[in-house]
Amino acid sequence: MLDQADSYVTEDGRTIGGVVMEMKNITLRFGGVVAIKDISFDIREGEIRAIIGPNGAGKSSMLNVISGFYVPQEGEVLFHGKKRPQMRPYEVARQGIARTFQNIALFDGMSVLDNVMTGRLNYMTTNLFQQAFWKGRAEREENENREVVEKIIDFLEIQAIRKTPVSRLPYGLKKRVELARALAAEPKLLLLDEPMAGMNVEEKEDMSRFILDVNDEFGTTIALIEHDMGVVMDLSDRVVVMDYGKKIGDGTPDEVRNNQDVIDAYLGVSHD
Ligand SMILES: Nc1ncnc2c1ncn2[C@@H]1O[C@H](COP(=O)(O)OP(=O)(O)OP(=O)(O)O)[C@@H](O)[C@H]1O
């Protein structure tokens, strides 16, 4: 059994560090609906951690708790060992957390490049006044941001569409641009909301490869939620399984695959 601070090396040679985020006895209600019931789990530095479950299991609600968007009625979220207070989205971003959304949230009329640049907003320190009267500093900052963005565009192989308005792109590429924008923030923890929803097999394979590459190349810790158990099993180090707001499994893909409660939930065995 690992301690919170312990690290280990995976079979494919990646180092997984200590716990960066801990969810302790989280309960979240919407009026009479209990979306999350007393769930605890942690996320370790450098790992790919999946949260899976059937429709309505509470996955999106959980991702919103992790991102700080929802504050649970019970339980606490510890980030680097400290209880996390309620935060506004820009405060979450400053803590090094970035996310993508299930329903793509890009600026449709803007080019791919401009959309990815918006991921740098937290790094832009000059205001309009400074940009007008202190050209040198504003230019330097713009160049630095541009450099990071171009690197990410290359990394995700979207150079050919950098000037294309997002509205003209097929769905799979829009998802990739959203990933690029999240990466532009250089997050330590990246949250992906159903990154492969609505994709065909080839697009899913591409997205899986990019997620693995991001984790490997930048050492980014990744938590993702997914509906389809198959796609995350090859990708994840550890998997939390939710059903009807409860945690019914937590472990390596193999442990989870052989867990009877998980098998029942996915085979649609009746719940009593
Ligand atoms: N803002 C909200 N107001 C009221 N009820 C909500 C809200 N968000 C989620 N719920 C309810 O909480 C439960 C869990 O929903 P959630 O969207 O977290 O599940 P999910 O596992 O992400 O589902 P899906 O795979 O369909 O996206 C559901 O019963 C849902 O109707």
Please give a quick description of this structure.
Helices cover 36% and strands 25% of the residues. The protein is an alpha/beta fold. The protein has two domains: 1-96 and 187-272, P-loop containing nucleotide triphosphate hydrolases (Rossmann fold); 112-186, no CATH class.
Question: What is the CATH first-level class name of the largest domain?
Answer: Alpha Beta
CATH arch. level architecture of the largest domain:
3-Layer(aba) Sandwich
Beta-strand proportion = 15-25%
Radius of gyration: 19 Å
The figure for the number of domains is 2
Total of DSSP H or I helical runs spanning 4+ residues? 10
End-to-end C-alpha gap: 33 Å
The small-molecule ligands in this entry are: adenosine-5'-triphosphate
Superfamily at the CATH H level of the largest domain?
Answer: P-loop containing nucleotide triphosphate hydrolases
Total strand count, please?
A: 12
* H/E topology pattern: EEEEEHEEHEHHHHEHEHEEHH
CATH topology category name of the largest domain: Rossmann fold
Which consecutive residue ranges, at least 5 long each, have pLDDT under 50? none
Spatial strand arrangement across the major sheet? 8-9-10-5-11-12
Keywords: ATP-binding, Hydrolase, Nucleotide-binding, Transport
Protein name: Sulfate/thiosulfate import ATP-binding protein CysA
Organism: Tritonibacter horizontis
GO cellular component, one term: plasma membrane
